[in-house]
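Hi R.,

As promised on Friday, here is the backbone we talked about, encoded as structure tokens. Could you run it through your design pipeline when you get a chance and send me back a sequence?
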């Protein structure tokens, strides 16, 4: 599944266009490599997402084309959350 779609379906980022913009700005890494919106995400991948002063590291648990709001958090596991002071 494309990275931008995964971020939207899993509700890590609310809109696919925002997910595309964030990934194209170089603020998302998959398994230590910078990712673009079209990058492929699969179960077991580790994503690092930078939201301003905060970084979130998640592991992809499963892929689903659609999901309900209550089930969206089952698509990933949060491994680490960090705040950055600049």
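Update: got your reply. Pasting your designed sequence below so it's all in one thread:
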């Amino acid at each position: 599944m494309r990275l931008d779609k995964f971020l939207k379906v899993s509700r890590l980022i609310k809109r696919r266009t925002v997910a595309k913009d964030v990934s194209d700005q170089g603020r998302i890494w998959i398994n230590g490599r910078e990712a673009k919106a079209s990058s492929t995400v699969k179960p077991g991948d580790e994503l690092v997402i930078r939201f301003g002063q905060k970084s979130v590291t998640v592991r992809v648990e499963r892929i689903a084309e659609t999901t309900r709001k209550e089930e969206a958090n089952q698509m990933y596991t949060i491994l680490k959350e960090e705040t950055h002071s600049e």
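One thing I noticed while checking it: Residues 17 and 33 are 21 Å apart (CA to CA).

Thanks again,
M.
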